[in-house]
Amino acid sequence: MVEQVSHPEGAQVVIEMWSDLGCPWCYVAKHRLRTAIEHRPDADRFKLVMRSFELNPAAPKQPETIEEAFIRTHGGTAAHFMAAERQIQAIAREEGLEFTLGRLSANTFDLHRVVQYANDEGLGFEFFSTVQDGFFVGALNPYAPDALAGVAESVGLDGRRVHAILASGEYADRVRADRTEGVELGATGVPFVVLDRRVAAPGAQKVPVYGQLLEQVAGPVSRERVS
């Protein structure tokens, strides 16, 4: 529940997003949240922090098609799964987002370990977002160490450090701790957004809803500032 406590004007507001790479609704929600923030003239006061939430910790490291992964985990048919994917694809495209159906699925634990390193450098959201966008447009293999290192360098991180992390077990405990904390805060899946540790928003909310939540935790902006 939201506490009716307002921040001093201009004070930083932290927004945490629990997400996983292959979650299509996370992809859509991330862009909706960013759009809601960008609609505010004080957008620079919001700090986005990526939190790790593996949807399927038992997923194999060897990539497989998204249909194979879904059927192996949930049952059903490829036709039913792809029909649902096409529905989400249509929603994403209406919002100007590319969305390929030819994605691969694999274990995301190693990616989340790199996200934790990126968080330490203040670039976790930027790194994850760039990887996820590349994945959903079909331009990036997120399971390839060289690809992750390349994205890391593109956002200002050390690609050599990424390779060292992937070759070790660094940040494993923090990935697991993130998921545990998300569940404790009420997450039953992702996307799960927590604003200022005062209000939680499960699921992919529409841009106006995110806008209302931003107003709740950061205060309204005057019409003069919006215009």
Number of helices: 10
CATH fold annotation: Glutaredoxin
Globally, the shape reads globular
Q: Which CATH class is shown?
A: Alpha Beta
Which runs of at least 5 residues are low in confidence (pLDDT < 50)? 1-5
CATH architecture: 3-Layer(aba) Sandwich
For the largest sheet, list the strands in their spatial order.
2-1-5-6
Strand content: 5-15%
H/E topology pattern = EHEEHHEHHHHHEEHH
Helix proportion range:
40-55%
Report the mean per-residue pLDDT as an integer. 94
Q: Evaluate the radius of gyration.
A: 18 Å
User: Biggest sheet, open or closed, and with what strands and sense?
Assistant: 4 strands, mixed
C-alpha end-to-end distance: 31 Å
Number of strands: 6
Question: How many structural domains in the coordinates?
Answer: 1
Structural class: alpha+beta
GO molecular function, one term: oxidoreductase activity
Domain DSBA-like thioredoxin: 14-210
InterPro entries: DSBA-like_thioredoxin_dom, Thioredoxin-like_sf
Protein name: DSBA-like thioredoxin domain-containing protein
